[in-house]
Amino acid sequence: GWAPSRNIAVTLSICGIMKAIMKGPRPYWLDDKIHPLDPTLEASFGFPSGHTAGSIALYGHIAYHYYSPSLALFVTFICIAISISRVQTGAHFVHDIVGGAIVGLISLLLTTGSLGVEWHENRGSSTDAVFLIILSLSTLATVILTNLNKQRLVNYKDVKESVSGAGLVFGVGLCHIAVRYVSVPRVLPLPIQGTLFELTGMIVIERLTKLVSHDGNGCYSVVGILLISLLHGFLQVHGHILTPFIMSYLSAEP
């Protein structure tokens, strides 16, 4: 939905900016005895935990709008389980989790209007579009300026989460603009097909980034970083705009 996408977008941006500035290490960077499940997936800076922040923002949004004691308890259990798993797998320190939880709660309070911030729930909101695009560009600018090396390149693995997050935020903003001018069918894409596309898209992006690396060691020019971020944004445009058209076409009677 649009509101959960916005919540995650805000959370990813806040985490992205903080990761770029704080440059917090991960446990296995400092201790060779710690072996994460997949170091290639946990290569960016550690503080704050994006998984913790994202889970609180997303599941908290669901609990807020469809509140019941049992749902609140279940959501709390899920968020705690995710947080503990990030420490157990060597991906984060405890303070990364605490930081992620604070970010997630702040984002949740902001996007649900609990702090007096008014949000438009309808898709196609020009206010949301402008805010999200500015937020995305601000995140990218912060990430790039704080991580340029002497060759004016950026090591992608250090800012992977921040760059992809900014792209997703930008994509949601573009979707709000698009639906103001295009009548998007109100159909729900099949979860399996949507998930498969997202996973495939992420894999393709990873392969492309390795092929077009500026120096062969994972460093990219500013233009390269911007293009990678735009590719992630396209995944959002596909999910919100293109997929409904495809599903509507496939489900139409012959």
Molecular structure report:
This protein is mostly helical and 254 residues long. 68% of the residues lie in helices and 2% in strands. It has nine helices and two strands. It has helices at residues 2-22, 27-30, 50-65, 69-88, 94-111, 126-145, 156-178, 191-211, 222-251, and strands at 154-155, 219-220. The protein has a two-stranded antiparallel sheet with strand order 1-2. The longest helix is centred in the C-terminal third of the chain and has 30 residues, at 222-251.
**What is the H-and-E element order?**
HHHHHHEHHEH
Q: Tell me about the largest β-sheet.
A: 2 strands, antiparallel
Overall pLDDT, averaged? 78
| N-C termini distance | 29 Å
The count of helical stretches stands at: 9
Class derived from helix and strand content: mainly alpha
Shape: globular
Question: Fraction of residues in helices?
Answer: 55-70%
Number of strands: 2
Low-confidence stretches: none
- CA-atom Rg in angstroms: 19 Å
Residue fraction in strands: under 5%
Spatially, the strands of the biggest sheet line up as 1-2
In brief:
The protein is mainly alpha-helical and 254 residues long. Helices cover 68% and strands 2% of the residues.
Strand and helix map with partners:
Elements: H1 2-22, H2 27-30, H3 50-65, H4 69-88, H5 94-111, H6 126-145, E1 154-155, H7 156-178, H8 191-211, E2 219-220, H9 222-251
Question: What are the key terms here?
Answer:
single chain, 254 residues, mainly alpha, two-stranded antiparallel sheet, 9 helices, 2 strands, 68% helix, 2% strand
